[in-house]
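Anyone? Bumping this.
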Amino acid sequence: MMNGRLDAIDRAIINGLQGSFPLSDEPYREAAEQLGIDEKTLLEHLEQLLNNGVLNRFGPMFNAEALGGAVTLAAMVVPTERFDEVAQTVNAHREVAHNYAREHDLNMWFVIASDARSDIARVIAAIEAETGLEVFDFPKEREFFIGFRVEA
Amino acid sequence: MSASIDEIDRAIIAATQSGLPLTTWPYDVVGRKVGLSGPEVRRRLQRMLEAGIIRRIGAVPNHYALGLKFNGMTVWDVADEQAAELGAQVGALSIVSHCYLRPRHLPVWPYNLFAMVHGKSRQEMDEKVTGIAALLGGAARGHAVLGSTRVLKKTGLRIAA
């Protein structure tokens, strides 16, 4: 398991640097000091964590909706024998960012993201026309403050 | 929370959305790409952070690589008039990565509160669900846990900038 290859410094970086990276002249040096290491060590570990896929990214996490984009969660009841075919049809839409098979009558759940809300309605209508299945739209009505940090 | 960003902000977003340069003066490097000084890049990032356009700046871990191989979408049917208060409590739990209110689709779907949980094992995930159930108590009129059986597509959300 990849987790086993992490050393104490990797864990300190993952646990301590999921936010609040300084907006200062030499931010890596400042962040390294807070972790009790030097800048070179921090940069080397970050590079390795990015290369081996433990980190997806290091930098700002943008809020697509605050930028004027639109996102919704959608779901369908897909007959088992049509599952792969319908998944292909759904995934072929560029605006479908994630798609998961889940355990429920509503067994296919996907995120549609685009620059405009009107695109979302268009994609939903297209998927319904292409598959002959109803798409249930679950737009976010409210989001709650998330303090979640993954622990390594 | 509507966006008030200009073309220069968009250029900064395009230059940083796949990550900050791993170098001593990362904001100066970004600045050179978009024709700004390092301090101006920092000032604009600070403003976007305060406006909620940037959620946070730092490491974005891969849950799966860290051993969190099980994710469950837990969904709860709570009374509309209590939903905001209960959602805030559930969202504040350290075990919940995303928490939203979404519409019901009766009769197929009675649930309005969605909370994503992650675990290194099915058992760990189930324990987290028990934690949410304990918090909600009688306020939850019903719930379901939808484990993910297969990832069918996963591409990063890219912002057109």
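Late reply, but here is one note on the structure posted above: Chain B is about 35% helix and 30% strand.
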